[in-house]
Design brief:
CATH class: Alpha Beta
Helix content: 10-25%
Largest sheet: 4 strands, mixed
CATH topology: Deoxyribonuclease I, Chain A
Strand content: 15-25%
Number of helices: 5
CATH architecture: 4-Layer Sandwich
Order of helices and strands: EHEHEEEEEEEHEHH
Strand order of the largest sheet: 1-2-4-3
Length: about 230
């Protein structure tokens, strides 16, 4: 199986590039993150013309995830068990109250799982965390903990599993262009790095290539470069 993952940063804005890339490279399975597209508006018909079935999860805001597969899609999971929700910062009414009553928020569209040709595939878009002092940071760590439990349960059932995505964590200082710039910010804090290490401890392996000689490749990129 040839599998690819891409934080597409708006599937509608990148659609011509996505279609051209699919047609040229023909991966068997593609995981997309930050689709910024409602599931019912995902361009499934366009990718179907290239031989891909689609499972999409999105509400049209800044997140959204999808799995494309040339080998069929089964057992689709929109989110994972006990996935937490983000209720906003303290003092911010970001979806927390309605007519004076608490609102039970649905989890954001940050995870979708599907079985493709016998392989359990997850497309994941981890919360950013914003700042270590924010409620969003606590939400991020809770999200990782629940994800770990969900993947552990699937692995315990004997699943062949791949967890692709944008984890919003730099595993080491080599994964940022200047560690001093990131000091005290999210993506590099010990709890975030530990959360990512806890996923690997399930028996998962980072597939970023690690050459036998020379420096390992960076995993960051400049989103401002066209």
């Amino acid at each position: 199986m040839r599998l690819a993952t891409w934080n597409v940063n708006s599937v509608k804005a990148r659609l011509p590039r996505l279609l051209a890339w699919l047609d040229e490279t023909k991966p068997d399975v593609v995981c997309l993150q930050e689709t910024k597209c409602r599931a019912d508006l995902f361009p499934a018909a366009e990718v179907k013309e290239l031989g891909y079935a689609t499972a999409a999860h999105g509400d049209g805001r800044w997140n959204g995830v999808a799995v494309l597969s040339r080998g069929g899609i089964e057992d689709v999971s929109l989110g994972f068990p006990d996935e937490p929700s983000y209720g906003g910062e303290e003092g911010n009414e970001e979806g927390q109250m309605e007519l004076g009553e608490p609102v039970l928020l649905a989890p954001e569209a940050r995870a979708i799982g599907a079985t493709c040709a016998g392989v359990r595939v997850w497309s994941l878009y981890a919360p950013n965390g914003r700042t270590p002092e924010s409620a969003h940071y606590a939400y991020k760590l809770a999200w990782f903990a629940a994800l770990r439990d969900a993947l552990a349960a699937e692995l315990a059932e004997g699943a062949s599993l791949v967890a692709c995505g944008d984890y919003n964590v730099a595993p080491t200082d080599d994964d940022v262009w200047d560690p001093a710039v990131f000091a005290g910010s999210t993506h590099v804090t010990p709890p975030e790095r530990q959360a990512l290490a806890d996923l690997r401890a399930l028996g998962l392996h980072d597939v970023v290539p690690k050459p036998m000689k020379g420096p390992r490749p960076y995993t960051y990129w400049d989103h401002k470069v066209p």
